[in-house]
Design a protein that fits this description.
Order of helices and strands: HEHEEEEHEEEEH
Helix content: 10-25%
Number of helices: 4
Keywords: Signal
Strand content: 25-35%
Structural class: alpha+beta
């Protein structure tokens, strides 16, 4: 599977038409509420689920509000074979342009869970800067829309 580091590399934005894009996504097993927002250099498609954007208030370990969003990474177009996908829950500090990967699940080609990880606590020191012009920045733009 593609490493998280590779998923944060520069992207190419896609220009999918509404209906055709939705049909293509559904054909690959993603529900219609996922939206393709970019393609990594290795041709991995990046999707977000706009309806999943949710604001979390400050907490005991984090003095700032964050927005979280689910993002998906479809490796099939990159490999040209039946390969898996990754689904990640990102949390963004929109003001300071920082990110935390709160949870991640890797799926094999047949849909089985290969691995699942989550952070134990959401603390301010766990957030890392979001580099401009990366897939991470494109996902953050979706999460941090007003």
């Amino acid at each position: 599977m593609t490493s998280i580091r590779n998923l944060l590399l520069p992207l190419t934005l896609l220009g999918l038409s509404g209906a055709a894009g939705a049909e293509e996504i559904a054909a690959r097993g993603w529900s219609a509420d996922w939206k393709v927002i970019g393609v990594a250099e290795d041709r991995t498609e990046v999707l977000v689920r706009p309806e999943s954007v949710h604001e979390l208030p400050p907490s005991m370990l984090r003095s700032f509000a964050v927005r979280q969003v689910w993002a998906g990474f479809d490796f099939a177009p990159a490999a040209g074979l039946a390969t898996g996908r990754k689904v990640i829950l990102f949390r963004y500090d929109c003001t300071a342009r920082r990110v935390l990967i709160a949870a991640a699940t890797d799926y094999g080609a047949s849909g089985q869970i290969v691995s699942r990880n989550a952070v134990d606590a959401d603390s301010a020191d766990q957030y890392a800067p979001v580099e401009p012009d990366t897939l991470n920045a494109a996902i953050m733009a979706e999460a941090c829309r007003d």
